[in-house]
Amino acid sequence: xxxxxxxxxxxxWENTHITLLNQQALPAITEFIHLHSVEDVYDSxxxxxxxxxxxxxxxxxxxxxxxxxxxxxxxxxDFKKNVTEHIERLASSRPTxxxxxxxxxxMKNILQEAQSISAAKEALVFEAKAxxxxxxxxxxxxxxxxxxxxxxxxxxxxxCNAGGIATARYGTALAxxxxxxERNFPLKVYACExxxxxxxxxxxxxxxxxxxxxxxxxxxxxxxxxxxxxxxDAIIVGADRIAANGDTANKIGTLGLAILxxxxxxxxxxxxxxxxxxxxxxxxxxxxxxxxxxxxxxYIQGIRVAPEDVSTFNPAFDVTPHHLITGIITxxxxxxxxxxxxIPNFVK
Length: 348
Ligand SMILES: CSC[C@@H](O)[C@@H](O)C(=O)COP(=O)(O)O
Known about the structure:
The chain is of the alpha/beta class. The chain has eleven helices and 16 strands. Helix content is 40%, strand content 16%.
């Protein structure tokens, strides 16, 4: 089992507050910030201090537990109404990663069942901790299944950061690399920088280097040339929402990589826990795609790189159609096409 010795937990429940590894500050500064209110949690998700689908979900769950603990209402109905408002506030932070809504739904169910305020406060903390522990376990299993797909010496390309810091621990797409390192199983990782906000350059390169994984950074527009020149064996990415037919929303740029994988005849894998599936959606066409401030494109790390007043279009995610996906690696095993038929055998 991998221990990820040098990597800290990115989200920690501390009873009176939540401690977060500030992913906005990395890699220049490794700092931990303390969230003392639901509003702090909302702001941290919105501003990407915590990001990555599973990490967003479990941080929001801890946010609900925190809000409930701080609630002053003495009437159970008032308490439930106020905590429900906290849940709604957190649900409005980011729209695409379904893990957020999955985790908040679990918290809401616990809230609704509670018979007293003190029981609710205790049960909400318990549930948030359970969501965290389950995510850690799911990611560990994803690492095992994912590693079974690679051979010693393979070169694998990844995009964005689907690592330990984007989950409770281990990561999804990066979990096999952590496991490989632990087992002295040689793999070479190529990380796309991931414009506009550089999760690949800032976070994946940092995380894998911390763990001693062999990682090489490229800019996004180098992917085709690199796949060809460096004989990349496979591409693996995470996911923010997977529809019932296998269509997958992930960080903007993922679709282009899936098309490249098809062109070059290499496998394209998605790694995600069952909490990332949204079986209520028939296809990816209904996945809401977050559009973020154009300043993320016109500025890099605070420096303007485009003319004042230029028009921008800044979708944070794209949808890869299922027919471009070779396999979806879950904690329950690797789902292969026909996805619409096979997903229910792995995800309930
Ligand atoms: C295990 S994290 C999986 C995905 O959430 C990840 O690939 C991704 O797209 C993250 O986007 P972000 O905007 O950084 O939250």
